[in-house]
Design goal:
The N and C termini lie far apart (66 Å). The protein is built from 13 helices and 39 strands. Helix content is 19%, strand content 33%. A hairpin with a 6-residue loop joins strand 6 and strand 7.
Length: 730
């Protein structure tokens, strides 16, 4: 028997009786869509005078360990698959996504010696292939093809870096979407995989020291069966010498007195300094420790103590180290340290501006600095003393990234993308300031057929929030169009214009896509982030609701035509927004979301998130978390929009138990006739490394679901206006 979820979860909080009319609708829905019965357990956690009931606690168990959870997943997927098969437009969406993915795309090249290393995907390969070419105009040679690693395409090349002379290549392997990495070494000339293997690496870079050794960070090997759920602690930096087993690796930096710290090592381009950045959570607040490689031993030297500010290494020249920082500059500035001094102090070379500093690198004898201005990219070159040399011309509203390089070499590469332009790759010479194309994608559509605008709308408290809106030029907005509204709003992460083949299929079908730059992100620096976290988290949900209300008020969309979507912290956003304003939305997609705000800190990387969410075991934080936790605030007796939840069995970032428990609670509550279903992917994780065919299958399912409930008409016979060959022309 199903009862009110909130009554089950919060024994001290009463609920209004279910409305008879709504109950009738719910019974009609059950006749067409019968959810699996989910067992409940008698679990109560007394916290600060509230008896918090958790009847679905058992769904937190790993699906690989608890057969009951595996059976629940199977039953839910059967219901979901049966429902999705009834939706029109899935085949058309899948076909269009396949066409939109089918273009040659390149990753940013990295130059070492005379060699250029880069990834390339011919269009529909599940994983991009790593190539090397001798000279800029040389012919590419395959180094690593991860498509050969697994029949299902779910084993990915997760990271790679060539040695200083280009003779060796470090690469990381990701299996089934997990955050764990296995590291291998490749001899570039022969293509032979060497014997070196490193296991249990996570949240780490790969930093060469010369051409025969490297640094990496890892956690201790977890207990068997706990690989995908146990808390991540005791992160340490190790030195690996080529030709030796991992058992002989030297731990060069660790923080046993503070096992919660993450420790990330970088090596300056001149191979003089190891810079270890230590952090305790997701906040950009770091301690910086240095080790002098030339000293012959791993003697730590503290440069920055106290977790008060962001310090991001740019690079080193001689004894001078360059950093970007938010110390005394919420939107960031650039400073340098003279490490030959007895007590190095930061000297400002680029002051804070109105725009937010988003990146900096040293290429040749220039600084390349990128900024965000209203979530759009600007880029310019400066001297190493901070004097402006000139702007780097970008192709309109969009996002520029890359600009990697090193002192003494004037060559760099960057990519530019926006909502209707996949990443075009350019080569820049910092001596001449000239940019030339390296790879320009050929597309199955004409970008000129679409329009992108940026609007600023007032949130509940009057704060102006930016939002990008994208649609076909010929879309009729006279009665409001079906609209997909996307948001994130957390962890200082900025949403900027970028291309997505799956999203483009929605737009191409006549839907509007809107992306709101909510507070909690980093679009306007530290102050914007602070305004949407901890006790201010409700601002994020208010910003999102206000975005939907603006779209309706402006006639861009209409009531009953808005679907909302978010991933991870954005999944939390969708869950909270649906609970708070179920009347406003036609449908919601909560992907890999953080849904139980009282237990998020007990699994894998969840403990880091207290910086944004607060501590569930502290009363003030507990009360705020309880006020918006999606799992705990489902409103039985209220008509809800259609909801599809998506997660994956190998998500060890946001464990799938969050989505499992939330879905079980939704299905048990009386929230009206519209479906509440969950799509659970196998051999997939939080998102990275997912093969192309799984992306197409997943998003054709999800967008067909959202189209159904927003009224976006997608015909299964739909043909594209332009083919890839049409766009290539002569």
């Amino acid at each position: 028997m199903r009862t009110s979820t909130l009554a089950l979860l919060l024994g001290t909080i009463s609920m209004t009786a279910t409305a008879p009319a709504l109950a009738k609708h719910h019974e009609e829905a059950k006749a067409n869509l019968t959810y699996p019965e989910t067992e409940t357990v008698d679990v109560v956690d007394p916290q600060f005078g509230v008896d918090v009931k958790d009847p679905y606690r058992w769904l937190e168990d790993d699906v690989r360990v608890n057969p009951k959870v595996a059976d629940w997943v199977k039953a839910q997927n059967e219901v979901t698959d049966s429902y999705l098969e009834t939706l029109p437009g899935r085949e058309a969406l899948a076909n269009r996504m396949k066409e939109l993915f089918d273009y040659e795309r390149f990753g940013l090249p990295r130059a070492r010696g005379d060699s250029y290393f880069y990834t390339r995907n011919d269009g529909l390969q599940n994983q991009s292939v790593l190539y090397v070419r001798e000279g800029l105009d040389g012919e590419g040679r395959v180094l690593i093809d991860p498509n050969e690693w697994a029949a299902d395409g779910a084993t990915a090349l997760a990271g790679w870096t060539p040695s200083d002379d280009g003779s060796k290549l470090l690469y990381a392997i990701q299996d089934g979407g997990s955050d764990w990495r296995t590291v291998k070494v490749l001899d570039v000339a022969t293509g032979k995989v060497m014997d070196d293997t490193v296991e249990w690496m996570k949240f780490s870079g790969l930093s060469w020291i010369g051409n025969d050794a490297f640094l990496y960070s890892r956690f201790p090997e977890p207990e068997e069966g706990a690989e995908f759920q146990s808390l991540n602690k005791n992160h340490a930096v190790y030195y690996h010498k080529l030709g030796t087993p991992q058992s002989e690796d030297v731990q060069v930096f660790a923080t046993p007195d503070n096992p919660k710290l993450n420790n990330f090592a970088q090596v300056t381009s001149n191979n003089k300094w190891v810079v270890v950045t230590s952090s305790s959570g997701t906040d950009d607040k770091y301690e910086i420790t240095l080790m002098n490689i030339g000293a012959g031993k791993w003697t730590p030297r503290k440069l920055i103590t106290g977790f008060d500010n962001a310090w991001n290494l740019i690079d080193g020249i001689g004894d001078t180290l360059y950093f970007s920082t938010d110390k005394d500059a919420p939107r960031q500035r650039i400073v340098k340290f003279d490490m030959s001094a007895a007590d190095p102090q930061p000297v400002e070379i680029v002051a804070q501006r109105e725009a937010t500093l988003s990146g900096a690198s040293i290429v040749g004898d220039k600084l390349i600095v990128t900024y965000m201005e209203d979530a759009k990219s600007l880029a310019e070159m400066m001297t190493l003393d901070g004097a402006k040399v000139g702007e780097i011309a970008l192709n309109g509203i969009g996002t520029a990234g890359g600009f990697g390089g090193k002192p003494g070499n004037s060559e760099t590469f960057y990519a530019f993308t926006n909502f209707t332009q996949p990443g075009a790759v350019y080569r820049l010479d910092t001596d001449t300031g000239e940019s030339t194309p390296f790879a320009l994608p050929k597309l199955a559509f004409d970008p000129d057929d679409y329009v992108t605008t940026q609007k600023f709308y007032p949130s509940k408290d009057g704060t102006k929030i930016p939002m990008f809106i994208v649609h076909r030029k010929d879309v009729d907005l006279s009665e409001g169009a079906p609209t997909l509204l996307y948001g994130y709003g957390g962890f200082n992460i900025s949403l900027t214009p970028s291309f997505s083949s799956t999203r483009m299929a929605w737009i191409d079908a006549g839907g509007v896509y809107a992306m709101a730059n909510l507070r909690g992100g980093g679009e306007y620096g530290k102050e914007w982030h602070d305004a949407g976290r901890l006790q201010n988290k409700q601002n994020v949900f208010d910003d999102f609701v206000a975005a939907a209300e603006y779209l309706i008020a402006e006639g861009i969309s209409a009531k009953g035509k808005i679907a909302i979507e978010g991933r991870s912290n954005g999944g939390l956003l969708v869950g909270a927004a649906v609970n708070q304003r179920p009347d406003l939305f036609a449908a919601g997609h909560a992907a890999v979301g953080v849904m139980d705000m009282l237990r998020f800190d007990r699994f894998t990387a969840g403990r880091y998130w207290v910086d944004d969410y607060g501590y569930p075991n502290r009363e003030q934080d507990f009360k705020k978390l309880l006020s918006y936790s999606p799992y705990h605030n489902i409103r039985s007796g209220v008509e809800y929009p259609a909801v599809i939840v998506s997660t994956a069995d190998t998500d060890d970032r946001v464990v799938p138990g969050h989505s499992f428990k939330y879905t079980a609670a939704l299905q048990a509550a009386d929230t009206g006739a519209k479906p509440k279903i969950i799509r659970i992917e196998t051999r997939a994780g939080h998102g990275s490394g997912k093969p192309t065919d799984k992306l197409i299958e997943e998003y054709s399912d999800i967008y067909a679901f959202l189209a159904k409930w927003t009224g976006l008409k997608i015909e299964d016979t739909q043909e594209p206006e332009l083919t890839r060959e049409d766009m290539q022309g002569d």
